[in-house]
Amino acid sequence: MKEAIHPTWYPEARVVCACGNTWTTGATVEEIRTDICSACHPFYTGEQRIVDTEGQVDRFYKRLQQRNSIQREAEERVAARTSPDLPIAELELGKRYVNILAENGIEVVGDFIKKLDEGSEESLLEIPGIGRKVLADVKKMLRNRGYELPESQ
User: 10-45: which CATH number, 4.10.80.400, 3.60.21.10, 3.10.180.10, 1.10.3210.10?
Assistant: First the structure.
């Protein structure tokens, strides 16, 4: 074994914490200074708490509120888009078909869906001027907007 290559061993080295706690241990230096120990660490003392450095918690809650308001607005837009009170004219059908449906008491989407629900497609096909193509176009437009239509019988 080579001589003088190993560091000096101090069997009674002192460890000093910033909180004032001290103890002895074996080490290669005479004194060890540390910022935190088991006497002052929050995990060991049971005093864990949120440390709000520079308002991070407040910023988080602010972002959370913004996200919630954005989600609420999106849900309201979808609800307005799929409202049964939406006029048939807003579906961008031809003016002729809008007038034919209006003459037969179907002025809003809710009326159209109710008519579909009551007597399937046949009650709508009985209206003069409304054929399968118009019916298919209206149903397609409603599905694209997010409406749930009754199944055809």
Answer: 4.10.80.400
Average pLDDT, the chain: 82
Q: What is residue 53's three-state secondary structure?
A: helix
Burial class of residue 89 (count of CB atoms within 10 Å of its CB; 0-12, 13-18, 19+) = middle
Q: Which two tokens stand for residue 4?
A: 């003088």
Give the pTM: 0.46
Residues 6+ apart with CB under 8 A from 11: 26
Percent helix, strand, coil in the chain (nearest 5)? 50, 15, 40
User: Of the given ranges (9-13, 63-67, 136-140), which has the lowest mean pLDDT?
Assistant: 136-140
Cα separation, 66 vs 30, whole angstroms: 55
State how beta strands 10-17 and 22-27 pair: antiparallel
By CB neighbour count within 10 A (0-12 exposed, 13-18 middle, 19+ buried), where does 135 fall? middle
The DSSP symbol for 139 reads H
